[in-house]
């Protein structure tokens, strides 16, 4: 393998809102890793794996579309989160935690780009620079600038290995993270609890300046009765509240210390977009034993494995290390640190999985798009003029499907 030139020069490039800090300092690392036998084996191993990752991505998008088309509750939930919930940017996405999110995002992009750089050097394709990637001044990861002219002349199999390395790196980290989450879940034991109500719904979020906050209803409270009627699930609560709009009702709940509290409150005459009380609630009282067993069963496909991808910030009642459920367990390995460790591992898995499958989609500038464009061009070899725009058509169709998956909840009410 030929050593690439290292100019030791740092420069900044602004592509608003992105700032690219080009540095040569990762080039020696790529060369050293690429010279190992493990890197050469890895480069050969991943040549044919891009279609598998792409198939997984398209399958998940199709499943999401089917669920969105067929389930009004799912559409309502996505509307409540807003279109920004589809962005993997902490701070813009309402359910991505700030600290875990930024750490996971930076690590994910570094892992992704390192895959491209190392495999490029295995096949002697020049890496012009590496560097830090910032958005509006915030670091969101790293980049690897591969010489595009050399990459375009690279044989298709080698180019496939280079393009696949990024998404495959992400999928490997996601898989390792899943194993780690199973290990943590297996270390948990439910803590015996007392005085748990036989009915009610748990408050997992209270809106600012909401009716709930004005009467002292807080996160972790269990709402038991409204207007003298028992609340067993979310449907019960919604029906009782809607039937009493404009009336003064008494609400009884148990706070997270086990104290019973009753307050009188006058409900608004019209239901607002954020609901009557302005709270996010669970559908009943989650049983710690059942939650833990169902979560562990998902790893063995005895229950729906999709729940492993559910963010603990959204469905707190089904994730044992969420803010709601974590106090109900003890880890015989990590002790009280298990929620922080489990959440960090989850977000590493979540970011790597999503970045991996998204980059494998057959959309123009993405890794998958570049691979399939090259494949189509090599196979057609410009002989069939009527198919010369096939790669553009594939990109447009796939882009339309992705856009539709985002905006269907607003198109179908």
State the main characteristics.
alpha+beta, Pdz3 Domain, six-stranded antiparallel beta sheet, four-stranded antiparallel beta sheet, 13 helices, 47% helix, elongated
Q: β content, as a range?
A: 15-25%
The ordered string of helix (H) and strand (E) elements is EEHHHHHEEHHEEHEEHEEEHEHHH
Uncertain ranges = none
Total helical elements: 13
Helix content: 40-55%
Calculate the terminal CA-CA distance, rounded to whole Å: 59 Å
Number of β-strand runs: 12
> Structural class from helices and strands?
alpha+beta
User: Shape, please?
Assistant: elongated
Round the Cα radius of gyration to an integer and report it.
25 Å
How many domain units? Answer: 3
What's the arrangement of secondary structure elements?
Blueprint: E1 11-15, E2 18-23, H1 27-34, H2 37-45, H3 50-70, H4 72-81, H5 98-122, E3 127-135, E4 138-146, H6 148-153, H7 156-186, E5 188-190, E6 201-206, H8 211-214, E7 222-226, E8 229-230, H9 234-243, E9 248-254, E10 260-266, E11 279-281, H10 288-299, E12 329-331, H11 338-359, H12 367-380, H13 390-411
Antiparallel strand pairs: 1-2, 2-3, 3-4, 5-12, 6-7, 6-11, 7-8, 7-9, 9-10
């Amino acid at each position: 393998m030929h050593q690439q030139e290292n100019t030791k020069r740092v420069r900044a490039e602004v592509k608003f809102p992105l700032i690219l800090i080009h540095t040569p300092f990762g080039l020696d690392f790529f060369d050293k890793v690429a010279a190992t036998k493990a890197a050469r084996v890895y480069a050969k191993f991943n040549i044919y794996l891009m279609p598998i990752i792409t198939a997984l991505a398209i399958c998940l998008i199709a499943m999401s579309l089917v669920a969105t088309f067929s389930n009004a509750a799912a559409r309502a939930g996505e509307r409540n989160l807003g279109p920004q919930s589809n962005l993997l940017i902490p701070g813009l996405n309402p359910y991505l935690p700030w600290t875990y999110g930024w750490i996971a995002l930076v690590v994910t992009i570094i892992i992704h780009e390192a895959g491209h750089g190392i495999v490029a050097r295995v096949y002697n394709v020049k890496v012009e620079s590496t560097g830090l990637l910032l958005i509006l001044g915030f670091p969101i990861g790293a980049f690897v600038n591969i010489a595009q002219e050399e990459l375009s002349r690279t044989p298709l199999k080698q180019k496939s290995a280079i393009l696949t390395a990024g998404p495959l790196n992400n999928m490997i980290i996601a898989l390792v993270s899943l194993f780690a989450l199973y290990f943590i879940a297996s270390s948990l034991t439910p803590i015996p609890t007392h005085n748990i109500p036989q009915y009610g719904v748990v408050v997992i979020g209270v809106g600012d300046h909401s009716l709930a906050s004005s009467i002292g209803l807080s996160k972790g409270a269990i709402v038991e009765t409204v207007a003298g009627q028992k609340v067993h699930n979310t449907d019960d609560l919604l029906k009782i509240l809607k039937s009493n709009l404009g009336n003064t009702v008494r609400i009884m709940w148990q706070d997270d210390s086990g104290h019973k509290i009753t307050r009188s409150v006058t409900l608004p005459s019209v239901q607002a977009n954020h609901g009557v009380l302005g709270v996010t609630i669970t559908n009943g009282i989650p049983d710690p034993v059942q939650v833990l067993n169902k979560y562990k069963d998902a790893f063995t496909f005895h229950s729906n494995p999709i729940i492993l991808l559910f963010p603990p910030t959204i469905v707190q009642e089904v994730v044992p290390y969420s803010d709601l459920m974590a106090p109900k367990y003890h880890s015989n390995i990590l002790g009280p640190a298990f929620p922080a460790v489990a959440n960090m591992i989850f977000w590493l898995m979540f970011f790597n999985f999503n970045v991996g499958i998204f980059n494998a989609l057959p959309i123009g500038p993405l890794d998958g798009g570049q691979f399939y464009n090259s494949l189509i061009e090599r196979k057609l070899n410009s002989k069939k003029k009527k198919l010369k725009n096939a790669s553009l058509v594939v990109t447009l169709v796939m882009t339309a499907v992705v856009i539709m998956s985002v905006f269907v909840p607003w198109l179908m009410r």
